[in-house]
Amino acid sequence: MSEKVLAALKVAPSTTELREMDLPEVPPDAALLKVEVAGVCGTDVSQYRLPLRGGPLIMGHENVGYLARVGSLFASHKGVKEGDLMFLEHYLPCGHCEWDHMGEYRHCAATEWFYDPKAIRYGYTSTDTAPALWGGFSRYLYLPLNAVLHKVPAGLSPEQAGVATPMSNGIQWTLIDGGVGYASTVLIQGPGQQGLCCVMAARHAGADRIIITGTSKDARRLEVATALGADDVIDVDNEDALARILEITGGRGVDVIIDCTVGAGTKPTLLGIEAAKRRGGTMVVQGEGNQEFPSFPIGRLTRKGMTLKSARGHSYRAVELALHQLASRRFPVELMTTHRFGLADVDYAIKSVGGQGAPGAIHVSVMPWELVRDGA
Ligand SMILES: [Zn+2]
Ligand SMILES: [Zn+2]
């Protein structure tokens, strides 16, 4: 009889069950990751509600753990050994396209799980695909040779390293895509974990003025934003956001806008266009939740000479920079890591990120080797 591993499986929309799965044999070109921490993000909240696209699914795409069983070829090819603490990207790239050679695995066709049913991505691939262990809400994960791993710098705990996913997005969208640097003026919309990581990236890079917006529900998150380096917070429910931004910037507007408000409709995009400086601003938009945009002011965008970019995932380099930044302990990141749950509470953990569970959640972690935790 083969060894078993405990995992939390999504068996239907918004329904999770604990199940014992077979622990696979590890061939020379593969490894197993003993998952220490699996982060829960906003994408999980929307994905959790959707129907299954096949058999039951182990979610969890923000994973940190120790290499447990490492095949000889995997070890020599990757330069790793058993016991190494690794951060795992959720992409499983083809390994030979132009994007992969640039570390832009998010653009590799092989990682497009949404369009290609055969594409494998951690946290999104069903247990129908052998050997089933494709998500972090499980005690072990399967690593084929094309898994993308980063060594966690010494001194960082697995939970601290778990923040590398939102932090790498913050670095990608703010610094690499948004071009924020010394003396920039930045508007960040949405104080969730992504927006807060954008604040830290902008602060670290030397931005002059960092403005962040949220709603009345976000009061605590806006306090955390201030502690992490935001200069001005705006509650869009109770203040005229555009008037405040123009007042703060002396009527000039901001250089860069990063919209991290998924599902807030078209308002943040319209605010971003108006808040941009007279010419040449850049707006980075996380627009996956918006299907339609009637009367998009393309003329206004053109007259302002703006550049519009999409905020979607991160490059290999952004993850390395994120781990480096976390290891520097420059920011009180622990203000963001609000909740941790055991494997039996995956359902509640996801709901907490969606605002339907434990109050005050910002960054939520699942610790698969514990069954139940009190949440805090
Ligand atoms: Zn995510
Ligand atoms: Zn590729």
How does this structure look, described?
- By secondary structure, this protein is α/β, with parallel strands linked by helices.
- It contains twelve helices and 15 strands.
- It has helices spanning 42-49, 72-78, 98-101, 158-162, 164-177, 193-205, 219-227, 241-248, 267-275, 298-303, 316-328, 346-353, and strands at residues 4-12, 15-22, 30-40, 62-70, 85-88, 140-144, 149-151, 185-189, 209-214, 232-235, 256-259, 282-285, 307-310, 337-342, 363-367.
- Strands 3, 4, 5, 6, 7, 14 and 15 form a seven-stranded mixed β-sheet that branches. A six-stranded parallel β-sheet has the order 10-9-8-11-12-13, with helices on both faces. A two-stranded antiparallel ribbon has the order 1-2.
- The radius of gyration is 21 Å and the shape is globular.
- The relative contact order is 0.15.
- The model has no long low-confidence stretch (mean pLDDT 94).
- Bound molecules: zinc ion (2 copies).
- One zinc ion binds next to helix 3.
- One zinc ion binds at residues 41, 43, 61-62, 165.
